Amino acid sequence: MNRTTTLWRPTGPEELALVEASGWTAWPPRLPEQPIFYPVLNEDYAVRIARDWNVPASGVGYVTRFEVESEFLERYPVRQAGGETILELWVPAEELDEFNAHIVGRIEVVREFR
Predict the structure, then answer these.
(1) How far is CA 21 from each of CA 31, 75, 96, rounded to the nearest angstrom?
(2) How high does pLDDT run on average in the chain?
(3) DSSP characters for 14-76?
(4) pTM, to two decimals
(5) Superkingdom of this entry's organism (predicted)?
């Protein structure tokens, strides 16, 4: 069995509705102004974005958790977007379908902020 890596993604209600429509198995295509998909490497960072950015922007913020095949993720270097624990992957929008194909199991909502 392939090893997996746990990733988190803070998201708002519109994106979450599209994830739900996929059967909780895929992230929706990026919008033209979103050339990169940014999953994050720890729950604390995802919580901060969901609470401090998604809630003011749309009234609710969700933290999702999902597993991706670790070997596949090796192509994406870990990016430090601020402090020591502000870690994310940068997945180009054109690679998102392939990224989705390497998700193992379902995308799940683990936190909700209003």
Answers:
(1) 17, 28, 16
(2) 96
(3) HHHHHHHHTTSS-PPPPPTT--EE--BS-HHHHHHHIIIIIHHHHS-EEEEEEEEEHHHHTTS
(4) 0.94
(5) Bacteria
Half-sphere exposure of 110 (CA within 13 A, CB side): 16
The single residue listed with the structure tokens 């059967």 is: 23
Q: What is the pLDDT of residues 47-79, one digit of tens each?
A: 999 999 999 999 999 999 999 999 999 999 999
**What residue segments make up the domains of the chain, in order of their start?**
4-113
Residue 9's DSSP bridge partners are 64
Q: What is the DSSP letter of 110?
A: E
